[in-house]
């Protein structure tokens, strides 16, 4: 099935035509503006604007709207949803923005990419996180910085390896703490004071396992149907115990 349908609401003034001039075959061919239901935008100030606006029902307190502004140098396509917007694309989706793009999300933003994601930034990338930041990588993680890598923490930096931790520098490694330092370089190992035995190691902060709850719940949602299928199969199948069958003289 295909086509378009617009059902007039109570109180709307409509334009009625008749198929082949037959009064028994009326057709509502359009809705008209009047003093009770004026045009969505003042005329002739917005005469270059083509508007399609619906009205929430019942009560009529909200509306959905699509308009095309064709005034020269002010061309615009505007879409307004009173509540939700849904898109379903069965194949590819492409968006090209000739200048800037601004996106504001006042709630949560969740994105799920089931295969590979690639992103290229031609200039600087600036990200500000005003709370915690979580990154969970199931396999390997690789960083490559062309010049300088700086990491600064207000309290503690904790790096933990399950087996080996390797720090490899082409020229030297410097450890500084409490006004003392150790330098490892091609000329040898140098310390600002004699090295003594003893001391108590500081226990580092523990890493967070898994993802934050909202994201983990979203990712597991795709497994609900599979889990239900397993439960249905288990409910229909008769339990089999090989040992019990042998005791009763049966065959497992």
Low-confidence stretches: 237-248
Mean pLDDT reading: 85
Largest sheet: 3 strands, antiparallel
Q: Kindly, what is the distance between the CA atoms of the first and last residues, rounded to a whole number of angstroms?
A: 56 Å
Number of strands: 8
DSSP helix count?
3
Widest sheet: strand ordering: 3-4-5
Domain Gp5/Type VI secretion system Vgr C-terminal trimerisation: 50-158
Domain Gp5/Type VI secretion system Vgr protein OB-fold: 2-32
Task: Give descriptors for this structure.
single chain; 252 residues; alpha+beta; three-stranded antiparallel sheet; 3 helices; 8 strands; Vgr_OB-fold_dom_sf; Gp5/Vgr_OB; Gp5_Vgr_C
The gist of it:
With 252 residues, the chain is α+β, with helices and mostly antiparallel strands. The protein is 11% helix and 17% strand. The protein has a domain of 35 residues.
Structural account:
By secondary structure, the chain is α+β, with helices and mostly antiparallel strands. The chain has a domain at about 50-80. Helix content is about 10%, strand content about 15%. It contains three helices and eight strands. The protein has helices at about 215-220, 225-235, 240-245, and strands spanning about 15-20, 25-30, 50-55, 65-70, 75-80, 170-175, 180-185, 190. The chain has a three-stranded antiparallel β-sheet with strand order 3-4-5, with no helix packed on it. It has a three-stranded antiparallel β-sheet with strand order 6-7-8, with no helix packed on it. The protein has a two-stranded antiparallel ribbon with strand order 1-2. A hairpin with a 7-residue loop joins β1 (about 15-20) and β2 (about 25-30). It starts with 12 loop residues before the first strand and ends in a 5-residue tail after the last helix. InterPro entries: Gp5/Vgr_OB, Gp5_Vgr_C, Vgr_OB-fold_dom_sf.
């Amino acid at each position: 099935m295909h086509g378009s349908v617009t059902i007039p609401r109570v109180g709307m003034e409509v334009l009625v035509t008749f198929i082949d001039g037959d009064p028994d075959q009326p057709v509502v061919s359009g809705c008209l503006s009047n003093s009770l239901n004026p045009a969505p935008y003042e005329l002739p100030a917005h005469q270059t604007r083509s508007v399609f606006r619906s009205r929430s029902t019942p009560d009529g307190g909200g509306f959905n709207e699509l308009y095309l502004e064709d005034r020269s140098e002010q061309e615009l396509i505007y879409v307004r949803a009173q509540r939700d917007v849904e898109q379903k694309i069965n194949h590819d989706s492409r968006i090209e923005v000739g200048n800037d793009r601004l996106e504001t999300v006042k709630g949560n933003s969740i994105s799920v990419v089931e295969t590979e994601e690639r992103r290229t930034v031609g200039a600087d990338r600036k990200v500000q996180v005003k709370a915690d930041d979580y990154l969970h990588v199931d396999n390997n993680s690789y960083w490559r910085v062309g010049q300088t890598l700086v990491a600064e923490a207000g309290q503690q930096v904790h790096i933990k390896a399950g087996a080996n931790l390797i720090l490899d520098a082409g020229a030297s490694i410097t450890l500084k703490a409490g006004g003392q330092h150790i330098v490892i370089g091609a000329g040898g190992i140098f310390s600002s004071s004699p090295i003594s035995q003893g001391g108590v190691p500081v226990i580092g902060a523990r890493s967070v396992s898994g993802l934050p709850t909202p994201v983990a719940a979203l990712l597991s949602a795709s497994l609900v149907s599979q889990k239900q299928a397993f439960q249905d199969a288990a409910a229909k199948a008769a339990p089999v115990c090989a040992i019990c069958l042998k005791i009763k003289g049966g065959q497992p």
